[in-house]
Amino acid sequence: CWLVSNTCGECREGYFGDEPGPSNGLCVAGTKKKGNFNLENGQHLTLVPGKKTIGIKVSGVKQPTPPSIAEVEVQSNTAAIDLCPANAHMSLETNRCECVEGYVMEHNACILQCPPNSSMSAPGRCQCDPGFVLDSLQTSCCVDMTEATPVAENKEGEEKEEAKPPPPPWFVKLDLRHFSMDRFLYTLDTFISTKKGQTSMLVGFGLFLMVFCGLFYSLLPHGVPAGKHATTTTVAAEDIANVTLTVVNDSDATNATTTAVPDVPSPTDAPEQYTSLIESIWACWLFIADPGAQGELHEWNKRVFAFFVSVIGMVYFFVIMGFVVDSIRDKMEDLKKGRSNVIEKNHSLLLGWSDKSVSLVKQLCLANESEGGGVVVVLAELEKERIEAELESQMEPHEYHGTKVVVRSGSPLITNDLKKVSAHTARSITIMATSIDADKSDASCLRVILSLRGLFKLQGHVVAEIRDIDNEPLVHLVGGSIVETLVSHDIIGRLILLSARSPGLSRVYNSVLGFDGDEFYNKAWPEVVGVPFGELIVRFPAATPIGVKTVKGKIVIKPSMTYKIEDGDEIIVLAEDNDTYKPEPPTLVPPVPIPVIPAKDKIKEKILVCGWRRDIQDMLVLLDSFLERGSEVHLLNELTV
Question: How far apart are CA 186 and CA 508, in angstroms?
């Protein structure tokens, strides 16, 4: 409102009073209302002295505002109740909100304005830039470290605590130098921790030492040897024939006469002699490699120089000797621990180690006997010394039959370890079951097969030992045609049952399944293509045909006598060795009557099974298939009924 004689006149344009007439003294912008007034951001209410408001309600304001004002008493000539954001006030001259000193208006809000040489570190907080500090006298100013006032007095006259002196300008640079030095030493340690770095450092230091010493040595002058001096005489030209040059040795006063020369200059006037750079480098090499080479020096400056070079050379060669010793020790340690590479091909590879591995190694040695021996490589996670000690304690030297057994320590799950034992060039690969738990063992076997499939040009035949028959289809799915599975747990259980019912049958299995005696062999023979299987008995007089492995990989034991051998079929025979049989032309054999073997009556059996197996149900089903009705099976184990 316009004040006239300290009383409110009429309201200005755009403002309205609470009641009609100018005596009310309340003018508010916006819509005229009765009672409370709604103020928006940037608007204000002017009051006359002595008047009290009935309340101002703050509403519809987006920016932070002061709390609602319930009642205000005007004590000065005029007063303005503004509705401005924090850190701001209403200007009566401009009728607008203005920020207080030190703040600036941004987006209808007053934001702290940092002084020079500072920046905003957090909302509403300033921080001096690097190299500047907050002056103790001028608390709102960031000044240079060297210009800051360390001591100030408060209003009560008490002396404030001394501020810590700012660090000198070179302090930050010194820290950076320390950081750079630490970084350099770290890089150097990392480099020389490898064999390549050690070799490079030794070679580089040796070359630098020779070149640097050669350059320094070439700057050293040399003249007449110590202990000798030259005497000269200047004569006329006509008397030149009678003049001699004499070199006198101070030690033994022995004279040596040489050809006379005219007007020989004084030794002090002769120019100094220097050694060439190539000769200097060679001399430094002699000082480094052979300290005895110093004996030929006569000048003391060169003797002192050669002494220091020889000392450095001795230290250098001691370092080289230590490096060579460490390299030899590391190599022997690698050989001892089984970490070196195996460069072989057409060898037998065993992946993993178990209680059946020694027996398998014995059988492989027997199989290689006909070939004059071979190579068996073992890759396991056990230590090489432990495996070799186990082989040495369970195998005699003659049981190797010329076969070399190589042991390497590593994981069959790691491709680099498989490459280390030349798995991609092996003739056969056997994956052993190494865990007691069937699921863990089969899972490990599956991972090994995946690692083998990742090798380039894998040409060997892979046989995997499986503990659970339920996992066999998964192994076939992952391994494909190159992997054959052997469920050892089920096969051993069947052999135990059959051997228990027929005493002596275990010897037959040992002879047939092992390489000690006759064993199974399969091979394709083009000479018998089209021949009925029943006639093969006369074609192989040194072997016994028992079945056929078809082109599709199917094994057929005792096929029909009229089955004709096709191209690619492999004949399965029992023979002494793989080189003791071959097909021969058919021979005429007179027929003889087949002897009649009387059949035995089946009897009821009682079988006692001691212990428990997880596949006991499969064993009982197998027993039920060939036992007479009424037979009994008794189970004796530690489990409860």
Answer: 69
